[in-house]
Every structure is written in structure tokens, then in C-alpha cells.
Specification:
The protein is of the alpha+beta class. It has one helix at 64-77; strands at 6-10, 16-27, 30-37, 45-52, 55-60. It has one domain.
Length: 85
Amino acid sequence: MEENNRIVLLNEDGEEETFEVIELITIDETEYIIAQPIEEDEYDIIFRIDEEDGEEVLTVVDDDEEIDMVAGFYYEDFGGEGKES
């Protein structure tokens, strides 16, 4: 994947972690990013794009229903071929 399809975020330890963006999805006016850590390709992570103080922030989606909704949309509507989160 091209370099511009990557994002770098700080993990809970304050260290940089690079993710490969698989897909940007909008569901009911909420945007989600499906991404995969570059260092470990065994799982995908779903981030929700939230707005805080006028800035976009990425929030890890950890609610099972929300994960299932986004994964279902990706696999059914986009024909996703990756691994489910």
C-alpha cells in the first residue's frame, strides 16, 4: 500500500505506531477508519472519527455492536476481503 495510506498515532505508552488505512467508511454521518497495524498484520482496528474542541480525533471502537455494524457494512457493501475485527 502507498505511504499516503498510512497514519501514525501515539499508543497508550506514548510511542508512535503506524497503521495502514484499509478503508474510510461513512455510516449515518459518522466516519470510521478500518486500519491495520504495520508491525502486526493479524488484526484490524476500527477507529471512529470524533470531533473534540473543533478538531478531529480518532477513537478506538471497542463496543461489540458498533464493531459488528462497521465490519458488516464493510464486508457486505464494500466487498471487503480482509480479516474482521
